[in-house]
## 1
Amino acid sequence: MSDFWNRVREALSAQGTTQEWVARKIGIRPDSFSRWIGRGILPSVDQGAAIASALGTTTEYLVTGKDPEGLSPRIHALAKSLSILSEDDLSDVEALVANKLSKYPHKDA
């Protein structure tokens, strides 16, 4: 299996989603998508971009393993899941993160 598909599987796992969900999201039959993965067939550029978008990551990451922002699939999945929260809930999450970060020495971003 190619590194591309390994990264897709990693992103699927990080998001707790399925190959079938991604296939339907990008307009591909789930059995075709599964065959691509099983046979290591790389998608077209457009399909690769659609897969990356569905998984909340970048094509660059799926192809090279390098994220332009330096974020892991787990962080991308977390950020994507936060997008459904209300403003009040986001404020609560920000306060929680600030509290957790105050326990670690770090440089300001």
Note: Residues 87-101 form the longest helix (15 residues).
## 2
Amino acid sequence: MSAAADPLAEAIADRVVERVLARLPALPPERISYGVDEAAVVLGIGRTLLYDLIRRGVVDSTMIAGRRVIPVEELRRLAREGAA
């Protein structure tokens, strides 16, 4: 009899998976914007270059509570089209 067909083995495996999943942190809600440092990491560029692109008007950003953020849609556009 194979281990996959053994009900006891399946029950143990299910319990192990439940215990592991219970220890994982909950996934955060889907992000709608990123701070400059996070956005630079997502894009694979330096924060200085990203600030330069913002200053030149190539990347749209906004200030929220004193923090500059870039919408996810803008990051996707930049990754798709690149910067001139």
Note: DSSP finds four helices and three strands in the chain.
